[in-house]
């Protein structure tokens, strides 16, 4: 009997619907090959949800996600909603979803594909062989800390406030995910903080050091975030697994993504202690090219592969998807963001068709 999974798909805004359509087609094709049956249920999030219901994360969407085996999200946000206050913006929908599903661990792999070495803005010698996993804490830190808001004093002078806070328990649980991840990779973990200035980082560093006693096979190092940003660009191959808080992880994962040539290539997984995982590209909704069939769907497709691997325990199907991506790149197909001389440029749909052909031939 075929394995059956219930997947909530959240196309969101901008290029979201286009890249999601490709990923769903790829999943269906892979399902046929690997005897997997998917039931897809589409739900609203972000700007699309604001337009339809007035809120960025309708309760119905959260319920739908909770009842599924995994959630595949494309991207949210756009100019249209940029002037709304933070709590009503599309981004609040994504943050609410992460919090609502308690997805505290965000895994963002940045691995350079040999076919795309020349797409990186860094020298070939610097990026060749880069294979980094950023483990970003996702439901705490300054993104969620209280107090937060814009407050006026008696004389009407306003202050904007956010709070960077981590409890020991929050640090330990992301630390454990990171040590376990490093253990399955090359056994090196670099914890990134700002312990020379921030108390919250001092606690972070203390806990990571304590935890390392339980993982003698993992080599732990520490870097301040400014130095880490510099080292990522100077000598990225020194990194295996990086663990860091929510804000630093947001920034460093974009930098790590760019090592690989295009942020349009990178998938991510967000996992909790139990319940469905959330899979989404690292890139955003690219409103400037939305609806023009120019988007690169590969990060979305690779997110679907991560979903098969981490949430659905279907590694063979994940391998097939990743192989099809390598195959189309090997055949010289490129979207605009990774285009190079001598290659064949395709649109979003064209890239999807090329993937389906590659899968059919496997
Ligand atoms: C990301 C994004 C989000 C974040 C935004 C869209 C809220 O930049 O997933 O990295 O800051 O976490
Ligand atoms: Mg980001």
- Note the run of SSEs as H and E: EHEHHEHEHEEEHEHEHEHEEHHEEH
What is the third-level CATH name, the topology of the largest domain? Isopropylmalate Dehydrogenase
What Rg is obtained from the alpha carbons, in whole angstroms? 20 Å
Question: What helical percentage do the residues reach?
Answer: 40-55%
Provide a descriptive summary of the structure in words.
- The chain is of the alpha/beta class and about 350 residues long.
- It folds into two domains: about 1-100 and about 275-360, Isopropylmalate Dehydrogenase, CATH 3.40.718.10; about 105-260, Isopropylmalate Dehydrogenase (3-Layer(aba) Sandwich).
- About 40% of the residues lie in helices and about 20% in strands.
- A ten-stranded mixed sheet has the order 2-1-3-12-11-4-5-10-8-9, with helices on both faces. A two-stranded antiparallel ribbon has the order 6-7.
- The radius of gyration is 20 Å and the shape is globular.
- The model has no long low-confidence stretch (mean pLDDT about 95).
- Bound molecules: 3-isopropylmalic acid and magnesium ion.
- The site of magnesium ion (MG) has 2 residues, from helix 9.
- 3-isopropylmalic acid (IPM) binds next to helix 4.
Descriptive tags:
362 residues; alpha/beta; Isopropylmalate Dehydrogenase; 2 domains; ten-stranded mixed β-sheet; two-stranded antiparallel ribbon; 12 helices; 14 strands; 21% strand; binds 3-isopropylmalic acid; binds magnesium ion
What's a concise summary of this model?
By secondary structure, the chain is α/β, with parallel strands linked by helices. It is built from twelve helices and 14 strands. A hairpin with a 5-residue loop joins strand 6 and strand 7.
